[in-house]
Protein backbone atom coordinates (compact mmCIF):
# COMPACT_ATOMS: atom_id res chain seq x y z
CA UNK A 1 0.00 0.00 0.00
CA UNK A 2 1.29 3.42 -0.95
CA UNK A 3 1.99 5.84 1.89
CA UNK A 4 1.71 9.63 1.46
CA UNK A 5 2.93 12.31 3.84
CA UNK A 6 -0.31 14.27 3.69
CA UNK A 7 -3.67 13.37 2.22
CA UNK A 8 -6.38 16.04 2.05
CA UNK A 9 -9.97 15.04 1.39
CA UNK A 10 -11.97 17.81 -0.28
CA UNK A 11 -10.91 20.37 -2.89
CA UNK A 12 -13.13 23.26 -1.83
CA UNK A 13 -12.11 26.41 -0.01
CA UNK A 14 -10.88 24.51 3.06
CA UNK A 15 -8.90 21.79 1.27
CA UNK A 16 -7.25 24.24 -1.14
CA UNK A 17 -6.11 26.56 1.66
CA UNK A 18 -4.87 23.62 3.74
CA UNK A 19 -2.86 22.20 0.81
CA UNK A 20 -1.17 25.51 0.07
CA UNK A 21 -0.34 26.17 3.73
CA UNK A 22 1.00 22.64 4.28
CA UNK A 23 3.29 23.13 1.30
CA UNK A 24 4.36 26.56 2.58
CA UNK A 25 5.36 24.86 5.83
CA UNK A 26 7.52 22.24 4.20
CA UNK A 27 5.30 19.27 3.30
CA UNK A 28 6.51 17.98 -0.05
CA UNK A 29 4.20 15.02 -0.71
CA UNK A 30 0.53 16.00 -0.77
CA UNK A 31 -2.41 14.14 -2.30
CA UNK A 32 -5.60 16.20 -2.68
CA UNK A 33 -8.74 14.15 -3.32
CA UNK A 34 -11.84 15.82 -4.79
CA UNK A 35 -15.03 13.96 -5.69
CA UNK A 36 -16.25 16.52 -8.26
CA UNK A 37 -14.68 16.95 -11.68
CA UNK A 38 -13.46 20.43 -10.77
CA UNK A 39 -11.71 22.00 -7.81
CA UNK A 40 -13.42 24.84 -5.94
CA UNK A 41 -16.23 23.02 -4.19
CA UNK A 42 -19.39 24.92 -3.38
CA UNK A 43 -17.73 28.25 -4.25
CA UNK A 44 -18.31 27.42 -7.91
CA UNK A 45 -22.07 27.74 -7.52
CA UNK A 46 -21.89 30.83 -5.27
CA UNK A 47 -21.82 33.29 -8.15
CA UNK A 48 -22.84 36.24 -5.95
CA UNK A 49 -20.34 38.73 -4.51
CA UNK A 50 -19.22 39.09 -0.92
CA UNK A 51 -16.22 36.77 -0.81
CA UNK A 52 -12.67 37.83 -0.05
CA UNK A 53 -13.35 41.11 1.70
CA UNK A 54 -11.25 40.10 4.69
CA UNK A 55 -8.69 37.86 3.05
CA UNK A 56 -8.02 39.77 -0.20
CA UNK A 57 -9.52 43.16 0.79
CA UNK A 58 -11.54 42.90 -2.42
CA UNK A 59 -15.10 42.06 -3.31
CA UNK A 60 -15.15 38.80 -5.25
CA UNK A 61 -17.65 36.18 -6.37
CA UNK A 62 -17.28 32.57 -5.23
CA UNK A 63 -15.74 31.32 -8.50
CA UNK A 64 -13.25 34.22 -8.53
CA UNK A 65 -12.27 33.50 -4.92
CA UNK A 66 -11.80 29.80 -5.73
CA UNK A 67 -9.87 30.59 -8.91
CA UNK A 68 -7.06 32.27 -6.96
CA UNK A 69 -6.52 29.18 -4.81
CA UNK A 70 -6.96 26.72 -7.67
CA UNK A 71 -4.27 28.48 -9.72
CA UNK A 72 -1.92 28.43 -6.75
CA UNK A 73 -2.52 24.72 -6.06
CA UNK A 74 -2.04 23.87 -9.74
CA UNK A 75 1.27 25.73 -9.75
CA UNK A 76 2.72 23.55 -6.96
CA UNK A 77 4.15 20.28 -8.29
CA UNK A 78 4.27 18.69 -4.82
CA UNK A 79 0.47 18.74 -4.65
CA UNK A 80 -1.06 15.89 -6.63
CA UNK A 81 -4.71 16.64 -7.39
CA UNK A 82 -6.95 13.63 -7.98
CA UNK A 83 -10.38 14.65 -9.29
CA UNK A 84 -13.53 12.49 -9.40
CA UNK A 85 -12.05 10.67 -6.42
CA UNK A 86 -14.62 9.65 -3.84
CA UNK A 87 -13.44 8.40 -0.46
CA UNK A 88 -15.62 5.54 0.79
CA UNK A 89 -13.67 4.16 3.73
CA UNK A 90 -11.37 5.46 6.45
CA UNK A 91 -9.70 3.62 9.33
CA UNK A 92 -8.36 4.91 12.64
CA UNK A 93 -4.77 4.49 11.43
CA UNK A 94 -5.56 6.76 8.48
CA UNK A 95 -5.92 4.26 5.66
CA UNK A 96 -8.22 5.66 2.98
CA UNK A 97 -10.07 3.79 0.29
CA UNK A 98 -11.37 5.81 -2.64
CA UNK A 99 -12.90 5.36 -6.04
CA UNK A 100 -11.69 7.18 -9.08
CA UNK A 101 -12.92 6.43 -12.58
CA UNK A 102 -12.26 2.75 -13.20
CA UNK A 103 -10.18 2.17 -10.05
CA UNK A 104 -10.45 1.45 -6.35
CA UNK A 105 -7.40 2.89 -4.60
CA UNK A 106 -6.04 2.48 -1.08
CA UNK A 107 -3.54 4.84 0.49
CA UNK A 108 -2.10 5.31 3.96
CA UNK A 109 -1.79 8.91 5.12
CA UNK A 110 0.90 9.84 7.63
CA UNK A 111 -1.14 12.97 8.28
CA UNK A 112 -4.71 13.49 7.11
CA UNK A 113 -6.80 16.62 6.72
CA UNK A 114 -10.53 16.18 6.19
CA UNK A 115 -12.04 19.19 4.44
CA UNK A 116 -15.36 17.68 3.45
CA UNK A 117 -17.65 20.63 4.16
CA UNK A 118 -21.33 20.37 4.96
CA UNK A 119 -24.61 19.02 3.76
CA UNK A 120 -27.79 21.03 3.88
CA UNK A 121 -30.44 20.20 6.42
CA UNK A 122 -33.49 18.73 4.77
CA UNK A 123 -37.22 19.10 5.00
CA UNK A 124 -37.31 15.88 7.04
CA UNK A 125 -34.99 17.36 9.68
CA UNK A 126 -37.39 20.22 10.44
CA UNK A 127 -40.50 18.03 10.43
CA UNK A 128 -42.85 19.84 8.07
CA UNK A 129 -46.17 18.05 7.84
CA UNK A 130 -48.03 17.33 4.64
CA UNK A 131 -47.60 15.38 1.45
CA UNK A 132 -44.37 14.59 -0.40
CA UNK A 133 -44.80 16.09 -3.84
CA UNK A 134 -42.10 17.14 -6.29
CA UNK A 135 -40.95 20.74 -6.03
CA UNK A 136 -39.21 20.70 -2.65
CA UNK A 137 -35.54 21.62 -2.88
CA UNK A 138 -32.80 22.54 -0.48
CA UNK A 139 -31.62 26.08 -1.27
CA UNK A 140 -28.14 24.99 -2.26
CA UNK A 141 -29.48 22.37 -4.66
CA UNK A 142 -31.62 25.03 -6.33
CA UNK A 143 -28.50 27.18 -6.51
CA UNK A 144 -26.60 24.42 -8.28
CA UNK A 145 -29.47 23.74 -10.68
CA UNK A 146 -29.70 27.40 -11.72
CA UNK A 147 -26.08 28.51 -11.67
CA UNK A 148 -24.30 25.37 -12.85
CA UNK A 149 -26.91 23.41 -14.81
CA UNK A 150 -28.97 26.33 -16.11
CA UNK A 151 -32.25 24.83 -14.90
CA UNK A 152 -34.91 26.86 -13.07
CA UNK A 153 -36.61 24.67 -10.44
CA UNK A 154 -39.96 26.49 -10.48
CA UNK A 155 -42.01 29.64 -11.09
CA UNK A 156 -43.67 30.45 -7.78
CA UNK A 157 -41.42 29.97 -4.82
CA UNK A 158 -41.76 29.97 -1.04
CA UNK A 159 -38.56 29.79 1.00
CA UNK A 160 -38.59 28.26 4.47
CA UNK A 161 -35.78 29.48 6.71
CA UNK A 162 -33.73 32.61 6.30
CA UNK A 163 -30.25 31.15 5.98
CA UNK A 164 -27.90 33.05 3.71
CA UNK A 165 -28.25 30.63 0.81
CA UNK A 166 -32.03 30.96 0.96
CA UNK A 167 -31.87 34.75 0.94
CA UNK A 168 -29.44 34.74 -1.95
CA UNK A 169 -31.65 32.34 -3.88
CA UNK A 170 -34.63 34.65 -3.32
CA UNK A 171 -32.80 37.26 -5.38
CA UNK A 172 -31.55 34.75 -7.94
CA UNK A 173 -35.03 33.34 -8.60
CA UNK A 174 -36.44 36.88 -8.89
CA UNK A 175 -33.77 37.93 -11.39
CA UNK A 176 -34.49 34.82 -13.45
CA UNK A 177 -38.15 35.79 -13.70
CA UNK A 178 -39.67 33.54 -11.05
CA UNK A 179 -41.87 34.98 -8.32
CA UNK A 180 -40.69 34.56 -4.74
CA UNK A 181 -43.89 34.82 -2.75
CA UNK A 182 -42.57 34.60 0.80
CA UNK A 183 -39.72 33.83 3.12
CA UNK A 184 -40.98 32.03 6.23
CA UNK A 185 -38.71 32.05 9.29
CA UNK A 186 -39.67 30.55 12.64
CA UNK A 187 -37.28 32.78 14.59
CA UNK A 188 -37.92 36.46 15.27
CA UNK A 189 -34.99 37.63 13.17
CA UNK A 190 -33.09 36.65 10.04
CA UNK A 191 -30.63 33.79 10.48
CA UNK A 192 -28.67 35.05 7.52
CA UNK A 193 -26.53 38.17 7.37
CA UNK A 194 -28.40 41.45 7.53
CA UNK A 195 -26.81 42.60 4.29
CA UNK A 196 -28.38 39.65 2.49
CA UNK A 197 -31.79 40.46 3.92
CA UNK A 198 -31.40 43.99 2.53
CA UNK A 199 -29.96 43.31 -0.92
CA UNK A 200 -31.72 40.01 -1.68
CA UNK A 201 -35.13 40.39 -0.06
CA UNK A 202 -35.97 44.02 0.72
CA UNK A 203 -34.52 45.25 -2.60
CA UNK A 204 -37.09 43.15 -4.45
CA UNK A 205 -40.03 43.71 -2.12
CA UNK A 206 -40.23 40.03 -1.13
CA UNK A 207 -42.44 39.51 1.95
CA UNK A 208 -40.58 38.00 4.91
CA UNK A 209 -42.66 36.39 7.65
CA UNK A 210 -40.68 36.11 10.89
CA UNK A 211 -42.12 34.09 13.82
CA UNK A 212 -43.94 31.98 11.24
CA UNK A 213 -43.67 28.36 10.21
CA UNK A 214 -44.87 26.11 7.42
CA UNK A 215 -47.69 24.15 9.02
CA UNK A 216 -48.26 21.92 6.01
CA UNK A 217 -47.19 21.27 2.44
CA UNK A 218 -50.03 20.53 0.08
CA UNK A 219 -49.88 19.06 -3.40
CA UNK A 220 -50.41 15.81 -5.24
CA UNK A 221 -47.72 15.38 -7.87
CA UNK A 222 -46.23 18.83 -7.50
CA UNK A 223 -46.31 21.34 -4.62
CA UNK A 224 -49.55 23.34 -4.94
CA UNK A 225 -49.55 25.45 -1.80
CA UNK A 226 -48.16 25.76 1.70
CA UNK A 227 -50.08 26.56 4.86
CA UNK A 228 -48.26 29.16 6.95
CA UNK A 229 -48.95 29.85 10.63
CA UNK A 230 -47.69 32.24 13.30
CA UNK A 231 -45.76 30.85 16.24
CA UNK A 232 -45.47 32.09 19.81
CA UNK A 233 -42.27 32.58 21.83
CA UNK A 234 -41.95 28.82 22.35
CA UNK A 235 -42.18 28.20 18.58
CA UNK A 236 -45.63 26.70 19.04
CA UNK A 237 -48.18 27.29 16.31
CA UNK A 238 -50.90 29.78 17.24
CA UNK A 239 -54.28 28.21 16.37
CA UNK A 240 -56.34 30.23 13.94
CA UNK A 241 -53.36 32.10 12.52
CA UNK A 242 -53.02 29.88 9.44
CA UNK A 243 -53.08 31.24 5.90
CA UNK A 244 -52.30 29.74 2.49
CA UNK A 245 -49.71 30.66 -0.08
CA UNK A 246 -50.05 29.09 -3.53
CA UNK A 247 -46.69 28.01 -4.97
CA UNK A 248 -45.11 25.28 -7.08
CA UNK A 249 -41.77 25.23 -5.30
CA UNK A 250 -40.58 25.17 -1.70
CA UNK A 251 -36.93 25.93 -0.90
CA UNK A 252 -35.57 24.73 2.41
CA UNK A 253 -32.82 26.92 3.86
CA UNK A 254 -32.54 25.91 7.49
CA UNK A 255 -28.85 25.41 8.04
CA UNK A 256 -25.95 23.07 7.43
CA UNK A 257 -24.67 19.86 8.98
CA UNK A 258 -20.95 18.99 8.84
CA UNK A 259 -20.34 15.94 6.67
CA UNK A 260 -18.26 13.74 8.97
CA UNK A 261 -19.35 10.17 8.30
CA UNK A 262 -15.81 9.16 7.27
CA UNK A 263 -14.10 10.29 10.47
CA UNK A 264 -16.91 8.76 12.47
CA UNK A 265 -16.13 5.49 10.67
CA UNK A 266 -12.49 5.96 11.71
CA UNK A 267 -13.51 6.30 15.37
CA UNK A 268 -13.38 10.07 15.86
CA UNK A 269 -15.79 11.23 18.54
CA UNK A 270 -18.47 13.58 17.20
CA UNK A 271 -20.87 15.94 18.91
CA UNK A 272 -24.20 14.18 18.38
CA UNK A 273 -26.06 17.46 18.05
CA UNK A 274 -23.87 19.35 15.60
CA UNK A 275 -22.12 16.40 13.89
CA UNK A 276 -18.82 18.28 14.39
CA UNK A 277 -15.78 16.58 15.99
CA UNK A 278 -15.57 16.86 19.78
CA UNK A 279 -12.40 18.84 20.27
CA UNK A 280 -10.78 21.44 22.50
CA UNK A 281 -8.61 22.94 19.81
CA UNK A 282 -9.55 24.16 16.34
CA UNK A 283 -8.96 21.61 13.50
CA UNK A 284 -8.04 18.73 15.82
CA UNK A 285 -9.79 15.43 16.57
CA UNK A 286 -9.44 12.60 19.06
CA UNK A 287 -7.07 10.85 16.60
CA UNK A 288 -3.51 12.28 16.45
CA UNK A 289 -2.54 13.44 12.97
CA UNK A 290 -6.14 13.48 11.78
CA UNK A 291 -7.26 17.06 11.29
CA UNK A 292 -10.61 18.45 10.25
CA UNK A 293 -10.95 21.96 8.83
CA UNK A 294 -13.45 24.33 7.29
CA UNK A 295 -17.18 23.71 7.48
CA UNK A 296 -16.72 20.07 8.45
CA UNK A 297 -15.05 21.25 11.69
CA UNK A 298 -17.66 23.90 12.38
CA UNK A 299 -20.05 25.91 10.25
CA UNK A 300 -18.47 29.26 9.40
CA UNK A 301 -20.32 32.41 8.38
CA UNK A 302 -17.85 33.52 5.72
CA UNK A 303 -15.32 31.77 3.51
CA UNK A 304 -12.50 34.12 4.52
CA UNK A 305 -12.58 32.55 7.99
CA UNK A 306 -12.57 29.06 6.43
CA UNK A 307 -9.43 29.99 4.53
CA UNK A 308 -7.75 31.37 7.64
CA UNK A 309 -8.46 28.36 9.89
CA UNK A 310 -7.79 25.85 7.12
CA UNK A 311 -4.40 27.43 6.44
CA UNK A 312 -3.72 26.84 10.12
CA UNK A 313 -4.75 23.18 9.65
CA UNK A 314 -2.16 22.88 6.86
CA UNK A 315 0.49 24.26 9.20
CA UNK A 316 -0.62 21.96 12.04
CA UNK A 317 -0.33 18.94 9.76
CA UNK A 318 3.18 20.05 8.72
CA UNK A 319 4.19 20.38 12.37
CA UNK A 320 2.72 16.99 13.19
CA UNK A 321 4.73 15.39 10.37
CA UNK A 322 7.93 17.06 11.57
CA UNK A 323 7.36 15.69 15.07
CA UNK A 324 6.96 12.12 13.82
CA UNK B 1 -35.15 67.20 6.59
CA UNK B 2 -35.73 63.55 7.47
CA UNK B 3 -33.79 60.73 9.09
CA UNK B 4 -33.72 57.29 7.47
CA UNK B 5 -32.28 54.09 8.93
CA UNK B 6 -30.39 51.95 6.39
CA UNK B 7 -28.27 48.79 6.63
CA UNK B 8 -24.85 48.93 5.04
CA UNK B 9 -24.25 46.02 2.63
CA UNK B 10 -20.56 46.64 1.96
CA UNK B 11 -19.37 43.88 4.30
CA UNK B 12 -20.77 41.08 6.52
CA UNK B 13 -20.87 43.37 9.59
CA UNK B 14 -24.00 45.10 8.25
CA UNK B 15 -23.85 48.37 10.19
CA UNK B 16 -27.13 50.09 10.98
CA UNK B 17 -26.67 53.63 9.74
CA UNK B 18 -28.83 56.68 10.39
CA UNK B 19 -28.84 59.00 7.40
CA UNK B 20 -30.20 62.53 7.52
CA UNK B 21 -31.52 63.66 4.14
CA UNK B 22 -32.34 67.20 3.04
CA UNK B 23 -33.78 67.90 -0.43
CA UNK B 24 -32.70 64.47 -1.65
CA UNK B 25 -29.12 64.99 -0.48
CA UNK B 26 -27.37 63.31 2.43
CA UNK B 27 -26.34 65.83 5.08
CA UNK B 28 -25.46 63.62 8.06
CA UNK B 29 -24.36 59.99 8.48
CA UNK B 30 -24.00 58.20 11.81
CA UNK B 31 -23.63 54.67 13.16
CA UNK B 32 -21.20 53.19 10.62
CA UNK B 33 -17.98 51.59 11.85
CA UNK B 34 -15.89 52.38 8.75
CA UNK B 35 -15.62 54.87 5.86
CA UNK B 36 -17.25 52.43 3.42
CA UNK B 37 -20.52 53.23 5.19
CA UNK B 38 -20.23 56.93 4.26
CA UNK B 39 -19.90 56.18 0.56
CA UNK B 40 -22.63 53.56 0.69
CA UNK B 41 -25.06 55.89 2.49
CA UNK B 42 -24.68 58.65 -0.09
CA UNK B 43 -25.04 56.19 -2.97
CA UNK B 44 -28.00 54.40 -1.38
CA UNK B 45 -29.96 57.63 -0.91
CA UNK B 46 -28.96 59.57 -4.00
CA UNK B 47 -28.40 56.85 -6.61
CA UNK B 48 -28.92 53.29 -5.28
CA UNK B 49 -26.82 50.81 -7.24
CA UNK B 50 -25.77 47.16 -7.06
CA UNK B 51 -23.21 44.85 -8.59
CA UNK B 52 -25.24 42.37 -10.66
CA UNK B 53 -24.20 38.72 -10.78
CA UNK B 54 -25.78 36.12 -13.05
CA UNK B 55 -24.92 33.45 -15.60
CA UNK B 56 -24.70 33.36 -19.39
CA UNK B 57 -25.18 30.44 -21.76
CA UNK B 58 -22.25 28.83 -23.57
CA UNK B 59 -21.87 26.81 -26.75
CA UNK B 60 -19.29 24.05 -27.12
CA UNK B 61 -17.78 24.59 -23.66
CA UNK B 62 -17.28 22.15 -20.77
CA UNK B 63 -19.54 24.37 -18.63
CA UNK B 64 -23.18 24.80 -19.70
CA UNK B 65 -23.46 28.12 -17.88
CA UNK B 66 -20.74 30.64 -17.17
CA UNK B 67 -20.99 33.02 -14.19
CA UNK B 68 -20.72 36.75 -14.91
CA UNK B 69 -20.88 40.03 -13.01
CA UNK B 70 -20.74 43.74 -13.63
CA UNK B 71 -17.36 45.12 -12.64
CA UNK B 72 -19.05 48.06 -10.92
CA UNK B 73 -22.45 48.91 -9.48
CA UNK B 74 -25.34 49.62 -11.85
CA UNK B 75 -28.53 51.48 -10.85
CA UNK B 76 -30.98 49.27 -8.96
CA UNK B 77 -33.73 50.31 -11.35
CA UNK B 78 -31.80 48.78 -14.28
CA UNK B 79 -31.28 45.29 -12.80
CA UNK B 80 -34.15 43.60 -14.67
CA UNK B 81 -33.26 45.35 -17.93
CA UNK B 82 -29.70 44.09 -17.42
CA UNK B 83 -31.01 40.54 -16.96
CA UNK B 84 -32.83 40.79 -20.31
CA UNK B 85 -29.52 41.68 -21.96
CA UNK B 86 -27.67 38.90 -20.14
CA UNK B 87 -30.19 36.32 -21.39
CA UNK B 88 -29.26 37.18 -25.00
CA UNK B 89 -25.56 36.45 -24.51
CA UNK B 90 -23.95 33.21 -25.73
CA UNK B 91 -20.25 32.63 -25.09
CA UNK B 92 -18.81 30.41 -27.81
CA UNK B 93 -15.07 30.98 -27.43
CA UNK B 94 -12.77 30.14 -24.52
CA UNK B 95 -12.68 32.89 -21.89
CA UNK B 96 -10.76 33.34 -18.66
CA UNK B 97 -11.78 34.63 -15.26
CA UNK B 98 -11.95 38.43 -15.32
CA UNK B 99 -12.29 38.73 -19.09
CA UNK B 100 -14.69 41.43 -20.33
CA UNK B 101 -17.50 40.00 -22.48
CA UNK B 102 -19.59 43.19 -22.86
CA UNK B 103 -17.89 46.58 -22.72
CA UNK B 104 -19.90 49.53 -21.39
CA UNK B 105 -22.73 47.29 -20.24
CA UNK B 106 -25.88 49.47 -20.04
CA UNK B 107 -23.76 52.46 -19.07
CA UNK B 108 -20.33 53.84 -19.86
CA UNK B 109 -17.53 52.64 -17.64
CA UNK B 110 -19.22 49.46 -16.39
CA UNK B 111 -18.35 46.16 -18.07
CA UNK B 112 -19.77 42.67 -17.85
CA UNK B 113 -16.98 40.26 -16.90
CA UNK B 114 -16.71 36.49 -16.68
CA UNK B 115 -16.01 35.15 -13.18
CA UNK B 116 -14.87 31.61 -14.07
CA UNK B 117 -12.67 30.08 -16.76
CA UNK B 118 -14.76 28.47 -19.48
CA UNK B 119 -12.44 25.44 -19.29
CA UNK B 120 -11.87 25.42 -15.55
CA UNK B 121 -9.04 23.83 -13.69
CA UNK B 122 -7.20 22.28 -16.65
CA UNK B 123 -9.42 19.25 -16.44
CA UNK B 124 -10.08 17.30 -19.63
CA UNK B 125 -12.63 19.00 -21.82
CA UNK B 126 -15.88 17.18 -21.48
CA UNK B 127 -18.15 19.53 -23.38
CA UNK B 128 -19.89 18.37 -26.51
CA UNK B 129 -18.76 20.51 -29.44
CA UNK B 130 -22.18 20.22 -31.05
CA UNK B 131 -24.10 21.18 -27.92
CA UNK B 132 -26.51 24.04 -28.51
CA UNK B 133 -26.67 27.07 -26.26
CA UNK B 134 -29.69 27.58 -24.06
CA UNK B 135 -30.45 30.07 -21.38
CA UNK B 136 -32.00 29.05 -18.07
CA UNK B 137 -35.12 26.99 -18.64
CA UNK B 138 -37.77 25.57 -16.42
CA UNK B 139 -37.42 21.94 -15.37
CA UNK B 140 -41.03 21.19 -14.49
CA UNK B 141 -41.35 19.02 -17.56
CA UNK B 142 -38.36 16.95 -16.50
CA UNK B 143 -40.01 16.37 -13.13
CA UNK B 144 -43.30 15.29 -14.61
CA UNK B 145 -41.46 12.61 -16.53
CA UNK B 146 -39.88 11.14 -13.42
CA UNK B 147 -43.16 10.86 -11.55
Q: What's a concise summary of this model?
A:
The complex is a heterodimer of chains A (324) and B (147). Chain A has 324 residues and is α/β, with parallel strands linked by helices. Chain A has seven helices and 21 strands.
Topology, element by element:
The complex is a heterodimer of chains A (324) and B (147).
Chain A: E1 2-9, H1 13-24, E2 30-33, E3 49-51, E4 60-61, H2 62-74, E5 79-82, E6 86-90, E7 95-100, E8 103-114, E9 118-120, E10 129-130, E11 136-138, H3 139-149, E12 151-152, E13 156-160, H4 164-175, E14 179-185, H5 194-201, E15 208-210, E16 212-218, E17 225-230, E18 243-246, E19 249-252, E20 256-258, H6 261-266, E21 290-292, H7 303-322
Parallel strand pairs in A: 1-2, 1-8, 2-5, 8-21, 10-16, 11-19, 13-14, 13-19, 14-15
Antiparallel strand pairs in A: 3-4, 6-7, 7-8, 9-20, 16-17, 17-18
Chain B: E1 2-7, E2 16-22, E3 25-30, H1 36-46, E4 49-50, E5 53-58, E6 65-70, E7 74-75, H2 79-87, E8 90-91, E9 100-102, E10 112-114, E11 137-138, H3 140-146
Parallel strand pairs in B: 5-8
Antiparallel strand pairs in B: 1-2, 2-3, 4-7, 5-6, 6-10, 9-10
What would CATH call the architecture of the largest domain in chain B? Answer: Roll
Largest sheet of chain A: 7 strands, mixed
Report the biggest beta sheet of chain B as strand number plus sense, adding barrel if it closes.
Answer: 5 strands, mixed
CATH architecture of the largest domain in chain A: 3-Layer(bba) Sandwich
What structural class do the secondary elements of chain A suggest?
alpha/beta
Number of domains in the coordinates of chain A? 2
CATH class of the largest domain in chain A: Alpha Beta
CA radius of gyration of chain A: 21 Å
The CATH superfamily of the largest domain in chain A is known as FAD/NAD(P)-binding domain
Tally of separate helices of chain B: 3
Name the helix and strand elements of chain A from N-terminus to C-terminus, one letter apiece: EHEEEHEEEEEEEHEEHEHEEEEEEHEH
CATH fold topology of the largest domain in chain A: FAD/NAD(P)-binding domain
Amino acid sequence: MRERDLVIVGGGSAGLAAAIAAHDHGVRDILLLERDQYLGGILNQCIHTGFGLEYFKEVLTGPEYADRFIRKVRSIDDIEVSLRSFVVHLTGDKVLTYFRPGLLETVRARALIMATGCREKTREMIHIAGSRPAGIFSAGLAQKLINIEGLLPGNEVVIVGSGDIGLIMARRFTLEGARVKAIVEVQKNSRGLLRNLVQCVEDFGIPAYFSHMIARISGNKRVEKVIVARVDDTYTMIPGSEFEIACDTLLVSVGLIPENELIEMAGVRLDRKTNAPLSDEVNTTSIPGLFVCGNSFRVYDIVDSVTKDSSLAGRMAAEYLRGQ
Amino acid sequence: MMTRPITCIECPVGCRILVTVENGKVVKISGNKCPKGDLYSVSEIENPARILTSTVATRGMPLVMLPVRTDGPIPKTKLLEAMDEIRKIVVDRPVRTGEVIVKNFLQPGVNLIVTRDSSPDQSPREGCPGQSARSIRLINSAFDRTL
